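Q: Convert this sequence to structure tokens.
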Amino acid sequence: MLRRIAIMTLLSICTVAVHAQQPLLSPRDSTQVSFNGKRIFIDYGKPSMRGRKIMGELVPYTRWWRTGANEATSFKTDFDLLLGDSLVPKGNYTLYTLPSEATWKLIINKQTGQWGTVYNQELDFYRLPLKKRMLKQPLDKLDISLLKNGNGGGTLRIAWETTELTIPFRIKKAMKSAK
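A:
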């Protein structure tokens, strides 16, 4: 009996060790930019194509998408931000997208800390149009990046498979009070 328990324990340990050595299919990644010590930060799950058709299938058109994998994609800004032409106050948000064959929208949602498949449309802050462009070469892993332009702003870029989506951003300057 003790021998059987010892063998089962050893097998359990070996199984755990093998699983612990396998890479995550969708590891976490992040991107950030800083302006005068304050930052914009995005944390997301980075899925791979792994031979799958992504746009229109894995990411279905006309249904919201978690824009990443696993936990929801978090978005934090330390200052008021103009995203496109819309003012996003400093704070924490979740990013989703609403894909379609022709156009995409970026969803800024007030709910935070949830799993990526949890979405409450009533907490949408904005739905903003994204500029869509087709990539010449497929991109195997989802990539979300914040690219500075040197003028107190830049571009939020989401790219995967053969689709690239962008929206400009800039820091909302504080208004000087009249004296």
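The first strand starts at residue 28 and ends at 35.
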